């Protein structure tokens, strides 16, 4: 996979009146990359996607698509195609006609057009449904039509606006796998907008997490989950136990802190690290805490009491009250060893790995006006 | 079924009431076609036998044919004009949000609730004050004012589900603004437009008061019928003409409703 930039977003801002939908956003997406814009509703991710498509014109900044400055190009002259959230299937046309819609302007031979439509339908596993009308299709099938209709144009970039949000859970998970395989097969740059962190983690090569019109972090799924830069990013990507810790000392690349009952912990020092009055926020994911049974011993242990529990089928979520900690610890235990049978109030011991802690930076104050 | 509707259903006089209601509504109209095929010049029972001769007399009636032609011309013009204006209004109401939107929609619908004869008299006063000759053109203008609300309500229900993303999808696939209008917007809303044309044409065809005040020396069919009612001998011919007009109206309104529903379904399906 080449590392040539396909999309370069350069200090893009978008104002609606005095409201900042996008605030100085810059990022670069490589050719062939599956890139996700992740964030809560209203974070600006859809505005950014629509700016790439050409439906929104940034107030400031430039967007290069395959090296071409594009902010002044209308959507019909950009090498991008979009899968809309509601799919926007043309209701008066059948499946084949929908897929062929954009090809009509290319004035291909009838044979060539027919072949490209058939190939596109084949790609999304809709062969044989070409004559169906929009209202005869299921939600999943309509989504595939929208995909085929965009892919048949052989765009340089495929834009997907929450394409799976209208599907039920099981179908959504199936389509996630399929979408990933499709992207690998066609090799086109995909830009996905989603508010579902698991979707972003499962599909993407890289993820940009957005809050309040700004980018909070851009990283690979693994890095963004394991090494979230700020507290908000950590929180949005899944469960996290937050602790306030006193800074004990600093070196070039590490910070050591006093993490209350967890003892002294050494953490990777992020760029531009600065502790506010000697205190920092650190975090550890719930699944990095582990129950200890009977004679189990671990180098780092804590004793606690089960304050609350919730059964999730394959796992049980436990809230553990530990003396000397302000907040109870949340942890996730697989149900293989009987974690689901532990009663509330039971005294337990848990093991932790000091290396699993991350140092979290303060979130920038959001100002949108 | 709620308690209320269950109670209502058991009220014994409810079916009787419904029967009387429909009888009162439709029996007089039903009598018109019956007498139009009756072999007698008077509208009394018992019937004197079946004939189609009254329909035959219509074909040779020059004044009636002239009135029919006037009605057709007026109907087509009113349908096209009020539907065109209705498209603009419906698009504005369904697509954009602007200050005074509710008030504008209300004012457009208002002629529906104004006493038609007052509107007719005031239009006549203005036309005369401006020194404009009464003609089919004044009828067309008057009836258009009256038909826009009907056109708009039909069109709004057709446009309502028409989501912007359909047009965006078209631009996104490389189509121009004009091409998008031709290949997406128009075909999707076409049934609603045809439906509006049919409804407004039918209303114009049946409209009497405005036509009576504003038509001058060129009567439309309803005005012509009004003129014929003075002559008892002409009554069967009028009944035959009335039968044809009722049949035409029912046919067009049914067609219009079918098209309107189809337009509504189409746009709704596209977005679910």
Number of helices of chain B: 12
Range of helix content of chain B: over 70%
| Termini gap of chain B | 28 Å
Number of helices of chain A: 8
CATH topology tier name of chain B: MetI-like fold
Give the overall shape of chain B. globular
Low-confidence stretches of chain B: none
Structural class of chain A: alpha+beta
Biggest interface found: A-B, 27 and 23 residues
Specify the biggest β-sheet of chain B: none
Q: What is the percentage of strand-forming residues of chain A?
A: 25-35%
Oligomeric state: heterodimer
| CATH structural architecture of chain B | Orthogonal Bundle
How many domain modules of chain B? 1
Verbal overview:
Chain A is 21% helix and 34% strand. Chain A has helices at 45-53, 95-100, 110-123, 139-151, 169-186, 197-203, 221-226, 231-236; strands spanning 5-16, 19-30, 34-38, 60-65, 68-69, 80-83, 157-161, 189-194, 206-211, 214-219, 241-250, 254-258, 264-268, 279-284, 290-292, 301-311, 315-321, 329-334, 347-351, 358-360. The longest helix of chain A has 18 residues, at 169-186. Chain B has a single domain (63-271), classed as MetI-like fold. Helices cover 77% and strands 0% of the residues of chain B. Chain B is globular, with a radius of gyration of 23 Å. In chain B, 35% of the residues are buried. The model of chain B has no long low-confidence stretch (mean pLDDT 83). Chains A and B meet through β6 of A and α8, α9 and α12 of B.
């Amino acid at each position: 996979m080449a590392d040539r930039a396909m999309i370069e977003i350069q200090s893009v801002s978008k104002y609606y009146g005095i409201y900042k939908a996008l605030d100085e956003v810059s990022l670069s997406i490589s050719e062939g990359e599956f890139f996700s814009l992740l964030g809560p509703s209203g974070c600006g991710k859809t505005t950014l996607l629509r700016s790439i498509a050409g439906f929104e014109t940034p107030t400031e900044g430039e967007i290069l698509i395959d090296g071409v400055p594009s902010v002044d190009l209308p959507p019909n002259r950009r090498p991008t195609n979009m899968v809309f959230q509601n799919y926007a299937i043309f209701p008066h046309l059948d499946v084949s006609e929908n897929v062929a819609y954009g090809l009509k302007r290319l004035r291909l031979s009838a044979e060539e057009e027919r072949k490209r439509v058939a190939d596109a339908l084949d790609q999304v596993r809709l062969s044989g449904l070409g004559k169906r009308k929009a209202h005869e299709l299921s939600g999943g099938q309509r989504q595939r039509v929208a995909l085929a209709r965009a892919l048949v144009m052989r765009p340089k970039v495929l834009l997907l606006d929450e394409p799976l949000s209208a599907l039920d859970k099981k179908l959504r998970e199936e389509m996630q796998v399929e979408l990933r395989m499709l992207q690998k097969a066609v090799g086109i740059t995909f830009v996905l907008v989603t508010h579902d962190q698991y979707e972003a983690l499962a599909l993407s090569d890289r993820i940009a997490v957005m809050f309040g019109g700004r980018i909070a972090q851009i990283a690979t799924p693994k890095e963004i989950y394991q090494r979230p830069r700020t507290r908000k990013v950590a929180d949005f990507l899944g469960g996290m136990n937050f602790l306030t810790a006193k800074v004990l000392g600093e070196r070039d690349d590490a910070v050591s802190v006093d993490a209350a009952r967890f003892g002294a912990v050494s953490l990777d020092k992020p760029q531009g690290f600065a502790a506010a009055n000697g205190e920092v926020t650190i975090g550890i994911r719930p699944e990095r805490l582990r129950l200890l049974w009977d004679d189990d011993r671990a180098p780092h242990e804590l004793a606690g009491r089960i304050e609350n529990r919730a059964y999730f089928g394959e796992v049980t979520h436990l809230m553990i009250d530990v003396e000397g900690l302000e907040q109870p610890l949340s942890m996730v235990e697989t149900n293989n060893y009987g974690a689901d049978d532990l009663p509330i109030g039971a005294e337990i011991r848990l093991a932790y790995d000091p290396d699993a802690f991350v140092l979290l930076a303060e979130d920038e104050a959001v100002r949108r006006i | 079924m709620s308690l209320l509707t269950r109670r209502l259903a058991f009220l014994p006089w409810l079916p009787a009431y419904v029967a009387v209601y429909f009888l009162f509504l439709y029996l007089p109209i039903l009598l018109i076609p019956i007498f139009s095929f009756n072999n007698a010049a008077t509208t009394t029972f018992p019937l004197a036998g079946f004939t189609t001769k009254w329909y035959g007399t219509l074909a040779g009636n020059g004044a009636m044919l002239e009135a029919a032609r006037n009605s057709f011309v007026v109907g087509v013009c009113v349908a096209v004009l009020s539907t065109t204006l209705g498209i603009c209004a419906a698009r504005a109401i369904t697509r954009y949000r602007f200050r005074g939107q509710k008030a504008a929609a209300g004012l457009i619908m208002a002629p529906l609730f104004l006493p038609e004869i007052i509107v007719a008299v005031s239009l006549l006063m203005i036309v005369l004050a401006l020194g404009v000759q009464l003609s089919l053109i004044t009828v067309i203008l008057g009836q258009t004012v009256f038909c826009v609300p009907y056109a708009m309500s039909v069109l709004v229900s057709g446009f309502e589900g028409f989501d912007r993303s359909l047009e965006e999808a078209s631009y996104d696939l490389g189509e121009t603004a004009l091409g998008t209008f031709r290949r997406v917007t128009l075909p999707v809303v076409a049934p609603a437009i045809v439906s509006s044309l049919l409804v407004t044409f039918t209303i114009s065809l049946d409209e009497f008061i405005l036509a009576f005040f504003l038509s001058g020396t060129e009567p439309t069919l309803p005005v012509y019928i009004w003129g014929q009612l003075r002559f008892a001998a002409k009554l069967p011919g009028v009944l035959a003409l009335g039968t044809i007009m009722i049949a035409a109206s029912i046919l067009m309104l049914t067609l219009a409703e079918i098209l309107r529903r189809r337009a509504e379904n189409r746009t709704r399906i596209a977005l679910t």
